[in-house]
Amino acid sequence: MSTVSEAAVQAGSKYEPVIGLEVHVQLLTATKIFCACSTQFGAPPNTNVCPVCLGLPGALPVLNRQVVEFAVLASMALNCRISEASIFARKNYFYPDLPKGYQISQYDRPLAEHGYIDIETAVGGTKRIGITRLHLEEDAGKSLHEGFSDAEHSYIDLNRSGTPLAEIVSEPDLRSPEEAFEYLTRLKEIILYTGVSDCNMEEGSLRCDANVSIRPRGQKEFGTKTEIKNVNSFRFVRQALEYEIERQIEVLEEGGRITQETRLYNSTEGRTYGMRSKEHAHDYRYFPEPDLLPLVVDRAWQEKIKDKLPELPEARRSRMVNEYGITMQDAGVLTATRSLADQFEEAARAAKNPKKVANLVQSELMGRLKAKNLEIEQSPISMKGVAFSADLVESGAISGKMLKDLYDLAFERSQDFPVVYEKEKPQQISDDATIEKMIDEVIAASPKQLEQYRAGKTTIIGFFVGQVMKASKGQANPEKVNELLKKKLG
Ligand code: ADP
Ligand code: MG
Ligand code: ZN
């Protein structure tokens, strides 16, 4: 190992990173937050606009009730305290995609505060990450640049102007890029479960700004932070933070100082760039929005919204572990999305052995999905299909080996398990002589069980059926086996 990297490792352990995340989530309403324009993604530029979201003088905002309900639901899912009265404020700044010259947001009296998310830590166990606040705001428009080196043309699309956002601000409780990644994963999972956003990062429905500073280990005061803006995947957030922490360490180790600034992450180069210094950019001159009344969400309304809160991922995992006898790891995979968990539970409840269903997902499905680079939602074999296959193995109708072959075929043909099974179903052995021969062999090999049966324990017939099925590699007709066995034993 070179001395350079040893020095870097030493410097690395001398400092502790401090990270806080600001996440913008687009709320899934059909219309915008202060007008009736559509929020549809991908509409032709400047077609979903009106005097309100264009910021024309004299136009008045009217708050969308559904936006409030979604934001309250998200706040509850994040364990926040809801304020009965919160205030909209104007955040003033100039930008070409902001025609009003201010963004309507919430400032000193946000909708919700004092929440938290529990994350898994690398060493095992959980850690509670505080959520400072969740507030409502409107999105700005979008600038589009055309041309190669210097943009030759710039365009403004105001379709997005006035799209409802919930901004979720974490406490500076995160201590590593890995923890930040875990926090974002859990946050997204929770929001998806509530159904208030699709959290689609490609379409900008979930955006993350990462704040990071370092301090000598053991020091109480935080260092000066930088903010990395608009990173568009969780993986990139982690990479950007790793880079930025290294950069800050280098600056300090060389005797320099960190400037408080906004930086951009270039994922192709894997590094961050200074964009603007924060001191200047941050004089927003917030003041209460005179065109909107305080937002009042009284107890009664809160209770009504609370009824819509679904079982959240963490609670669901624990329940599933108890209910189906599966491991926490199984439960983690199976609750990745609400719809997957719903599908699993529906299938598992109908199956003979729910644990077998979970096992097959882990042992047969996940590996094949990974090899084909598919998410579990894209699996050719549905949860119902897995449950169906589990029942077949349980009853001995097919062997483990056959199941594997059928799974291979299902993936090859992109067909669900029952379809492939119907087509490929192993030829059943139904002729009496062959089955009787197998029965004789099984009986001869199981004198103890025979004795028990003769002594009156007739339920042990199940054992014999199983043995015969096994001997026939699952191909014997189970009804025939039953019938002939009864005759022989009786
Ligand atoms: P600003 O006014 O610059 O936006 P805030 O106090 O609103 O700063 O905090 C924004 C985010 O930065 C929050 O998520 C917070 O947890 C985080 N944060 C604040 N101070 C620090 C720090 N010294 N190091 C890392 N993160 C920080
Ligand atoms: Mg901020
Ligand atoms: Zn509008």
Structure description:
By secondary structure, the chain is α+β, with helices and mostly antiparallel strands. 42% of the residues lie in helices and 20% in strands. It is elongated, with a radius of gyration of 30 Å. The mean pLDDT is 90. Bound molecules: adenosine-5'-diphosphate, magnesium ion (MG) and zinc ion. The site of adenosine-5'-diphosphate has 14 residues, from strand 1, strand 10 and strand 11.
Summarize this, please?
With 490 residues, the chain is α+β, with helices and mostly antiparallel strands.
Primary descriptors:
alpha+beta; Arc Repressor Mutant, subunit A; 3 domains; 3-stranded antiparallel beta sheet; binds adenosine-5'-diphosphate; binds magnesium ion; binds zinc ion
Head-to-tail CA distance between termini: 77 Å
Low-confidence stretches: none
What spatial form do the alpha-carbon principal axes imply? elongated
Strand order of the largest sheet: 2-6-7-10-1-11-12-13-14
How do the helices and strands line up, and which of them pair or pack?
Elements: H1 3-14, E1 15-26, H2 51-54, H3 65-77, E2 81-82, E3 85-86, E4 88-92, E5 102-106, E6 112-120, E7 126-138, E8 142-146, E9 153-157, E10 164-170, H4 177-194, E11 206-216, E12 226-231, H5 234-253, E13 261-266, E14 271-277, H6 278-281, E15 287-288, E16 295-296, H7 299-306, H8 313-324, H9 328-334, H10 338-350, H11 354-371, H12 383-394, H13 400-413, H14 417-424, H15 432-445, H16 447-454, H17 461-471, H18 478-489
Parallel strand pairs: 12-13
Antiparallel strand pairs: 1-10, 1-11, 2-6, 3-16, 4-5, 4-15, 6-7, 7-10, 8-9, 11-12, 13-14
This protein binds adenosine-5'-diphosphate, magnesium ion and zinc ion.
